[in-house]
Amino acid sequence: MLDLLDKKIIAALQGDFPLTVEPYRAIADSLQISEDELLARLQKYKENGQMRKLGAVLKHREVGYAANALCAWNVPDERQEEIGKVMIDHPAVTHCYGRNSAPDWPYNFYTMLHAHDREACCAIAAELAQNARIPECIMLFSTKEWKKTSMRYFQEAEEK
């Protein structure tokens, strides 16, 4: 079970991460606890499977990555793990996952690429195809960026 402090910690971690040399200390200070207590609880969440990862969300367009494409590939099932390792090793790949194909859609493997322009995305996809030894993919370029929101848990704990 999570106590009130656990809920406050989780709520605090869903906001902007402090841009400071000691971000965990800043979060702990805002919660009026020690940095050691915060880190111990984060470790407990990880060990208990309550938290898988803690990471940043980069607003890619704001840092110059104006093009992004979802690449759909047709990968033999027995090679998906192998291909996944090749794909995710490339720094331009931010997502990599398998899905079931359909009668009118033979693609079963997807990667998300980010680059400065469409030509760079195409070059990356060609490089990935060569490295993974699979045929070219179909590239679905984003035309509009939708507002990104994530689930917010324990907002009521922030108010207490």
TrEMBL record:
SUPFAM superfamilies according to UniProt: Winged helix' DNA-binding domain
Catalytic activity: siroheme + 2 H(+) = 12,18-didecarboxysiroheme + 2 CO2
Superkingdom field: Bacteria
Keyword annotations: DNA-binding, Lyase
GO molecular function (one): lyase activity
Domain Siroheme decarboxylase NirL-like HTH: 6-52
Sequence ranges assigned to domain Siroheme decarboxylase AsnC-like ligand binding in this UniProt record: 63-147
Pathway recorded for this protein: Porphyrin-containing compound metabolism
The keyword DNA-binding is annotated on this UniProt entry: yes
EC number: 4.1.1.111
Family the UniProt entry places it in: Belongs to the Ahb/Nir family.
Protein name listed in UniProt: siroheme decarboxylase
Species this chain originates from: Anaerospora hongkongensis
